[in-house]
Here is the input.
Amino acid sequence: MTATQTIHPERQKRVDTALKLFSVTAWITGVFLIILVVRMILEYVLKVEIPSWATIVAIAHGWAYMAYLLAVLNLGLKARWKPVTWITTALAGVVPFLSFFVEANRRREVKEKFQLA
Here is the structure.
C-alpha cells in the first residue's frame, strides 16, 4: 500500500478496533509477566516463602497470554502481517518488558499504514 492510497473507512474501523484490543491485551500480559517474574525471583532466588494462593499470578498470566495471542491473530489477519511479524509479536508476551515495546511499535506501524488518528 502506498501513502497515496486511501483505506476504506470500514477497514480502518475494523483494524482500529483490533489494534485497541491488541494494545490492551499486550499491556495486561506484560504487567502479569512482570509480576510473575518478581514472584519467581522472590521464591527461587531469594528463597522467600510465597503463599500458595500466589500461583494465581502464573494462571492469570497464562490466560492473559492466550487473550494476547488471539488479539495478535485478530490484528495480524486484519493488517495482513507477514509471518515474521506475527511470530515476533506473539513471542513478545513471554519476554519481560518486550510486550510494551512491541505494542508501541506495532501500534505506530498500524496507525501509519492504515491512516488511523
User: Anything to note?
Assistant: The mean pLDDT is 95. The chain has one domain: 9-113. Residues 9-113 form one domain. The chain has four helices and no strands.
